[in-house]
Amino acid sequence: MKKWFLIVLIMGTTVPVFAGGIDNKQNFSAAYIGSLSRNAATDGADAAAYNPAGLMQLKNGTYLEVDLQPFTFDYDHEFNGETYTASPNLIAPMAFGVHKREKWAVWGSFTINGGGGETEYENGNIITQSVENLMTAGAFSPYIPSGGSLSMPYAYAKSYDYTFTTGLSFDLHPMVSVSAGIRYVRTDKEVDLHGTYNGSYILARYDQEADGFGGVIGIDIHPSDKLNIGIRYDSQVNLDWETETDASNQLGLILLNAFGRVDGQSYARDLPAVLALGLEWKVLPKLTLKPSFSYYFEKDADWDTQNDAVDGNSFELAMALQYDLNAAWSLTAGYLYIDVDMKPENFGIIEQMSPPLDCHAVALGTRYRISEQITLILGISGYFYKDATAPADFSKGRPQVTYDKTLYIGGIGIQYRF
To answer: Per the confidence metrics, is the pTM higher than 0.85?
Structure first.
């Protein structure tokens, strides 16, 4: 029981992760929001994140793109006949830069590859309920007596995986280009769990930081003007979270210290490697098909206590259509399916807060070339997840709980070519 309380209290609160695998994200740009398939992209600076080798098909010049993604979501935990919901409205910024010459290009991007904002459950959630059940059962006796109840439970977390990537692309052949880059990920997380138990206020608040480096390689094959193939591999980024607990009150520190969670202690939660494949096929002069496939190597990542919880690796399949109305306007539509191979009864606490559920998503978008220099990109997408129920496990303090979520994202991007 003590082991599970430690996991509940320490690892229990995180922020949502959207399109992608369990931890990885892919919604980096407004063009992705409007199509859900960019793995073979060659038409914008955001290809630096999706198909950097394909940047060699851009016109020569310097490109700068800034994107904003407003999003809203409902995360529901239903247990004991009640539903507890987090419904924030957030904005995520992304940026891309490319300097392309005849035979080479240098590029960079700022994206958020995990985390993704803030989550606040003003009336508690499955985490605080599990904590209360463990305390009531006497997990902390004699420091906290058994038989009490937790009032005014609250759970909050803020987390972003800030990702900086830069690299080079080269033409090897009129039909083949390659790319290689280096990636730096820095993650900051703030967690606040509190409530009143038998008249005593308990505050368990801590900050965590982790950073790591990884690599990105890619190849783009374009045998004709009608067909393009993009392949990208992102290496695993090793992340070890360092913890600071000095913001907790005395009772919170007693709980943390009693289970070995002290300042400077760390746990592993690597960002898994990704293999991304994409194709763009111009089937008609104005119509292009854009399928994509992404595979996440989660079983190879070190996830500390969750290493055995994943049954297999996640993947996603996407299909987009682009219709060019004229030289200035293009319309896009897309569909995405996410398959996560993790049973709800195997969810750790991180997954309980942001449940990795199978998903169907749809999108609409447009690209408006205002001039030779300026392009406006707009998109909107909705993610509809399949709910999942985990049976009660009293050794973990968890009642039967059903996880559900719905997400809507908008995207607006401006690209300028010098």
So the answer is: yes
